[in-house]
Design goal:
Elements (H helix, E strand, L loop, with lengths): L6 H17 L2 H9 L6 H9 L18 H14 L5 H15 L2 H12 L5 E4 L15 E5 L2 E12 L6 E7 L10 E7 L5 E6 L7 E12 L3 E2 L6 H36 L1 E2 L2 E2 L4 H29 L5 H26 L10 H13 L4 H11 L3
Parallel strand pairs: 1-4
Antiparallel strand pairs: 2-3, 3-7, 4-5, 5-8, 6-7, 9-10
Helix pairs in contact: 1-4, 4-7, 5-6, 5-7, 7-8, 7-9, 7-10, 8-9, 9-10, 9-11
């Protein structure tokens, strides 16, 4: 088994780390947390000039047609450096579903705008019960002529205030199973009847409650097939979970790197604290957690890149990466002590993201249930 990156992937990884270290320092991350938009148009433009929005988009639509693994490498570096903004919602929650389920006309209409950094997308999936399975989708889409009327509520919609388009899951019919009767729509974010309410979050990212009041959507805006939207939704969830794993993996590595450096520099009793067994064991456990999460994440990413079923692999990766990131930041706080809890220190930036990252796209408990189902339980 060869786990090494290709030379092209090593260049991508180094380029991304160098760029984000220079263009997205922690001072900017803190500043953006306090702004209304939570987004830097200048940083977005520079990322677009590097071709990041079109990294995985086919060449015929203005992209570079790299693999899903290459995208995962990029997200790992974004997690390492903390890169705020609508990149995840646009590329993972927007471009990937269109590439997987969009018609030829939809791909031609929407992918070039994403690849060029001109359009921002998001996904409206979760509802007040916060579930990530089919039974959690109750927003209703009722046909009327050549349109559907959507009514209901969506929660935790990222970057909805910036998006031009929203991919939305709705229930068009009631079948004997929750997975039946679901349809996915592409919606204009400025459509009449659609209202946004900002939500306060631990990470201070921008998430919203969306209220649909008879929002009109053309039947031509269905993504995939009517009443057969669950495979589209499940594909989104699997890919999004693995991409979020990569972010958490990068954040975990950043915490470990900070903790190792601090353990070499901080002295107690006339010796570096890294010479004490308790600190060494903390660092070793952090490293092993990263190692395990990394292998599961890249195995799932490889399967997705190869077009293989990856649902179980995505679930295992998400469960492990979420658990590892939370534990690593807790151990990091123990190593840094009181200084790590100050707002001036970077530890709190990573700690808050470890808690939020574990919850999104299915928390560890949910993913363990999905894994157990793969065992026939």
């Amino acid at each position: 088994m060869d786990f090494e990156f290709s030379e092209e992937q090593k260049i991508l990884k180094k380029m991304a780390r160098d760029f984000l270290k220079k263009e997205c320092p922690k001072e900017l991350v803190r500043q953006l947390e306090e702004t209304e938009a939570g987004h830097s148009p200048e940083l977005w433009r520079k990322m677009a000039e590097l071709g990041w929005m079109g990294l995985i988009v086919p060449e015929e639509y203005g992209g570079s047609e790299f693999s899903f693994i290459d995208l995962i490498i990029l997200f790992e570096e974004m997690g390492y450096n903390i890169c705020p903004g609508p990149f995840f919602s646009t590329v993972v929650l927007g471009a990937l579903p269109i590439m997987a389920a969009g018609s030829a006309d939809q791909k031609a209409a929407y992918l070039p705008g994403i690849a060029g950094g001109e359009a921002i997308w998001t996904l409206a999936l979760t509802e007040p019960d916060g579930r990530y399975d089919a039974s959690g989708i109750s927003l209703r889409a009722v046909p009327e002529g050549d349109e559907y009327l959507l009514s209901g509520t969506k929660l935790f919609v990222p970057d909805a205030h910036l998006a031009q388009y929203i991919i939305c899951a709705a229930r068009t019919t009631d079948g004997p199973e929750p997975k039946e009767g679901l349809t996915v729509f592409i919606i204009d974010a400025q459509a009449p009847g659609l209202s946004l309410t900002p939500l306060k979050t631990l990470v201070r990212d921008r998430q919203f409650e969306l209220l649909f009041d008879r929002v009109r959507v053309a039947k031509a805006s269905v993504l995939g097939e009517v009443d057969r939207g669950w495979p589209v939704i499940k594909d989104i969830l699997d890919k999004a979970a693995v991409a979020k794993c990569a972010e958490m993996l990068g954040g975990s590595q950043a915490v470990l790197d900070m903790a190792v450096q601090y353990s070499k520099e901080r002295t107690q009793f006339d010796r570096p604290i890294g010479s004490f067994q308790a600190i060494q064991h903390h660092l070793a456990n952090m490293w092993m957690g990263i190692f395990a999460a990394g292998h599961l994440t890249y195995k799932a990413a490889w399967k997705i890149s190869q077009g293989l079923p990856a649902g179980q692999d995505a679930a295992m990766a998400k469960a492990k990466a979420g658990e590892a990131y939370r534990q690593i930041t807790i151990l990091g706080h123990q190593i840094f002590g009181g200084i790590g809890f100050t707002m001036e220190h970077d530890m709190h930036l990573y700690h808050r993201r470890s808690a939020a990252g574990d919850l999104v796209f299915g928390h560890s408990g949910f993913q363990l249930e999905q894994t157990a189902q793969g065992l026939g339980l």
